[in-house]
Amino acid sequence: MASDNGNIVLEVKNLVKEFKAPGSKAVVHAINDVSFELHRGETLGLIGESGSGKTTVGRCILRLIEPTSGSIMYKDMDLMKLSGKELRKLRPDMQMVFQDPSNALNPKMNVENTLLDTLNIKAKLSGEKLDTDAIIKKVLDQVAMEEDYRLRYPAEMSGGYQQRVCIARAICADPTLVVLDEPTSALDLPVCAGILDLLRRLQEELGIAYIYISHDLTTIKYICHRVAVMYLGEFVEVGSIDQVFNTPMHPYSNALMSSVMVPDPTKKAEVVTLEGEIPSPINLPQGCFFAARCPKATEECFKNHPQMVDMGGGHKVRCYRVTSE
Amino acid sequence: MNNEKPILNVEDLTVQFCTKKGTAKVLNGLSFSLRQGEKLGLVGESGVGKSVAAWACLKIIKPPGEIVSGKIEYKGENLFEKSENELISLRGNEISLTVPRAHSQLNPLLTIGRQLMNAYIAHSDLPRREAKKQAYEASINILDKVGIPDPKNRMNAYPNELSGGMAQRVVIALALINKPTVLIADDPTGGLDVTIQAQIIELLNKMVEEMGTTALIITHHLGLVAQHCDHVAIMYAGQIVESCDTETLFASAQHPYSKSMLSSVRDTGDQWGPEFILPGRPPNPMELPGGCYLNPRCPHATELCRSKEPPYVDIGGGHIVKCHFAKEGGVEYGK
User: Fold this and answer.
1) What are phi and psi of B70, to 5 degrees?
2) Using beta carbons and an 8 Å cutoff, which residues of A are at the interface with B?
3) Nearby residues of A42 by Cβ (< 8 Å), 6 or more positions away
4) Same domain, residue pair B78 and B189
5) Which residue, A84, A130, B230, B264, shows the most beta carbons closer than 10 Å to its own?
6) Higher confidence at residue B191 or residue A97?
7) Last residue of a domain, one of B177, B197, B228
8) Residue B103 contacts A, CB cutoff 8 Å
9) Domain with A145 in it: what CATH number?
10) Among candidates B302, B305, B300, which has minimal Cα distance to B276?
11) Are residues B312 and B261 in the same domain?
């Protein structure tokens, strides 16, 4: 339990999210039973194909969208049981950085006002007086932005700087948890590298825990400590970067890892290509969700749904073929 | 190195877009050549003119863009001297282009079968009825080849019924239906998931091998280049700044911009550390700096770099670098 270990920032248990499909009575099973914990100063990466529910998990954790069931323990509080008012008090602690920085910033607010907005809300909620000017100065310095950017509007900045403002906005409230939803996907290569280095440095300085959502495995490998592979709304494998990238167990992670094109011509990878695409989340398959595309599937896989099993050292996997061996 | 005559030879290509705000110099003396059966990767950040280069190869640049100078030789003939009719019979038939963001580029009002058949019929000399018949066969055949399940029924599907990966396959099928000699793939993996990316690239490889097609792959995905291209050309501000074979680039890139690109991929190990990253962004094509276009960002820039455009230097083995400090054997910076 979270109370036993002060190091655990977030503990999610059996999170489920269902959406009503528009125009019909069908139910979209976006998240099916996701559980994990996040420690202080740690980065957990969520990877998976589009439609696997990565973003939905990120948003449910912050209750930006209401989960259907499950529990989210933040420190000692169950976020699911909090009222809107109580939740709002916690908001400064839990921040989010969105995918496309140009859409995430208010075009009519300059950098200073964007940050002030967050700080004023924090001051109002906590009742303490904040030296906003000093904080803005410090935060801009932390995200490596020059002082003269303070009065600029989003349209006057490049994508890289816009993303820096988004990160500055997230960290200025001194959060313990930041959910990063594909923070680099809209950026060019060298800019992306700069943002990754920045995130890493901030984590070392401030001890923030990150949940990093991305389908770019190379950046995940660079920035995360632990990683969870998602498939059709559930985790199929969780482990440290080393475990999942070097010795993937689940056939899906295996295929995913082998399809990474390594930027080194001397290492020609043996690619395990998967046939087909991710199934529809409306009609979930009866057995293992991956069975139809799995090269190792047997009859058992089509009949029963496998459970997450710890294979030692925190390396968990959801697959009959691995766990029964 | 290879003295074989190149199949597509681009020389000193200059393309400008005249707009109200000024003249955007998008391509500034671009030169590269493609040899029979090779795969060339054209790499650069967004906005360096990669796609415009692809359009120029088919001469499909529309006003306000114009090709100011240079020539493109396809099998020894200058494309710019050909009539529009000759070009039409070339486009999609001998030189084809696959476009990025496949979904938005397919015609949403026509079934994919109709689009494929149109592409085939346009280049067929047969009477219409027979051409149609053949086109139908050819379309099913190519859909099957690009790995679309149940091609006969899928012929009647509209683009919105396809997923991103499937749409990209259809775009590739469209480009390959007439068995082109040169395939220009513009960002074939953009916006796709890793597993789908692997499928698409495997498909491109297979097609290139089976049909003996020569491919120009335009991308900013260095992993793709490392794994699948024979040669690489790095582009900056409408010029090639470095070109060599893939192994050489990843082992010993010489141009500061190439080094910066390599070091931005955080998986290339210790060799390309963050110290190579250049500050700033590519220049606005309306306000290009004088001399070497990289000089405002380059830590080694001297007075010479600011005043004079650097020459192309072969530093050995066909490894070409556009830098004042390049000489036989490598790049040595002076004071």
Assistant:
1) 100, 175
2) 49-50, 158, 188-194, 196-197, 215-219, 221-222, 255-256, 258-266, 268-269, 271, 273-274, 276-277
3) A209, A210, A225, A226
4) yes
5) B264
6) A97
7) B177
8) no
9) 3.40.50.300
10) B300
11) yes
Per-residue pLDDT of B289-329, as tens digits, reads 988 999 998 888 888 999 999 999 999 888 999 998 888 77
Q: Are residues B238 and B147 in the same domain?
A: no
Give the amino acid at A82: L
Task: Please report which confidence band the pLDDT of residue B2 belongs to, taking 50, 70 and 90 as the band edges.
Answer: very low
The total number of structural domains in chain A stands at: 1
B119 shares its domain with B257: no
- Cβ of A49 within 8 Å of Cβ of B194? The answer is yes
Q: Taking CB atoms and an 8 Å limit, are A265 and B198 in contact across chains? A: no
Q: What distance in Å separates residue A275's CA from the closest CA in chain B?
A: 8
Residue B156 identity: N
From A221, A222, A256, residue closest to B195, measured CB to CB = A256
What total number of domains does chain B contain?
2
Cα separation of A113 and B60, whole Å?
A: 46
Test the A interface: residue of B169, B195, B244, B276 with most A CBs within 10 Å = B195
Write the residue in A262, A271, A276 that is nearest to B267 by C-beta.
A262
Same domain, B148 and B248: no
Whether A192 and B198 lie within 8 Å, measured CB to CB:
no
Domain that holds residue B243: 8-94+178-331
pTM of the model: 0.82
Same domain for B107 and B211?
Answer: no
The set of residues, in sequence order, having a beta carbon less than 8 Å from that of B117 and lying 6+ positions away, is B132, B135, B136, B139
More confident residue, B159 or B268: B159
Tokens coding A182: 């594909």
